[in-house]
Amino acid sequence: MGSIPKENSFWGNCLFFKDLNYKNFSAGLVAGIFIITGPTALILEASKNGNFSPSQTILWIFAVYVFGGLFGIFLPLYRRVPIVGGHTLTGVAFLATVTSQFTFHELIGSYLISGLLMVLIGALGFFSKLMKLVPKEIISAMLAGMITKYMVNFIVSINELLIVGFIPLIAFFIFSRWKLKVPPVIAAILFGVFGLILFHPLQNVQWTNAMMMPAIQLPEFNPLSFLSVSVPLALLILSNDAAVAVGALEQNNYRTPIKQIICFSGLFSIITNFFGGQSANIAGMGTVICSDDAAGPKEKRYMGAVVTGTLLLVFGLFSWKLVPLIQALPKDFISVIVGFSLLGVFGTSLYQAFSRQDMKMSTLFAFIIALSNITVASISAPVWSLLIGTIIARYIEGITAAQGEKQSKKTA
């Protein structure tokens, strides 16, 4: 890898604020709101499922947003590329299904293994090779199966909230129909908050006056968590964040430092793990938003990623003050926010999972197994979904790696 030109180095141009404009600022703001809203609600649900203490929950949120924000400030300034930092939305959705099976510190141990796997994969250039082992359609089917529960709760909660539920739904349809500048998901969340304030004011918010100082958490290693947590988490980050982000950058004709992205995602994740978070990595949808033409001139879009990183950093630093507010939200409202945040991922996952006629059996079994949320031999449903789906695809349907790669290029 050649040396980085001075004008593209972190210190090469200290006057980077001159590249900030309305378009990249707006894109960064939208990406930041997207990364903060739904994933935070999912973390609260995962924490509740695992019976984590309030301090552990706040520490989790602090870690992923502070270090995800730093990732999204450092790398874009260093490379002048809109590499948005954050943490994995789909990974948290997955963790919500397994936090009840392991302790907080055992999960930290599994996160560390996941981070090390990413560093190794990035350093050795195994990213594309690894993704070929498990067909993309099987990963999508597994993800769709995991998310289905949230989408069912999404519809049920809209019905329970009535006016407060239907206001964001109508806003979502309006902004989708007329292709307005604000993404439909963000519009739905903002209108939902407005409806909540108007018709369902919050009560009994347990504000805290004491600032919580972060503390290093020691990991505990459970061999069962390697297959049940570490491998699926690394796969989800690589397939649903790194792959999406790299695809968006290359689509917009950026020179994408793939090895650096994967390695730094692993390294920042390892630091995050010691403070209780599952990852700090490149954000798939955030990078899609900030690298798009709507984010302004190509050479200045990196500032959108910096704006997002700054927003995440501030949110993480003040999470001790903001989490009680989020916890006071009605359970059904949180389900609605989570539903809107996962709606695009769910639709895309379903489409990709069942897009091939020659993989109907394997993707169907992968989907149903993930949806069942079963645990066999202490190994969770997502792992069985990937394993059984891949075996059926390879040995019953006769799908080879070459065929999978060829079909993926056709549908890209």
TrEMBL record:
This is Benzoate transporter. It comes from the Bacteria. PANTHER family: INNER MEMBRANE PROTEIN YDCO (PTHR30199:SF0), MFS FAMILY TRANSPORTER, PREDICTED SUBSTRATE BENZOATE (PTHR30199). InterPro entries: Benzoate_Transporter (IPR004711). One of its GO terms (molecular function) is benzoate transmembrane transporter activity. GO terms for cellular component: plasma membrane. Keywords: Membrane, Transmembrane, Transmembrane helix. The chain crosses the membrane at residues 25-46, 58-78, 84-104, 111-130, 150-175, 182-203, 261-282, 302-320, 332-352, 364-387.
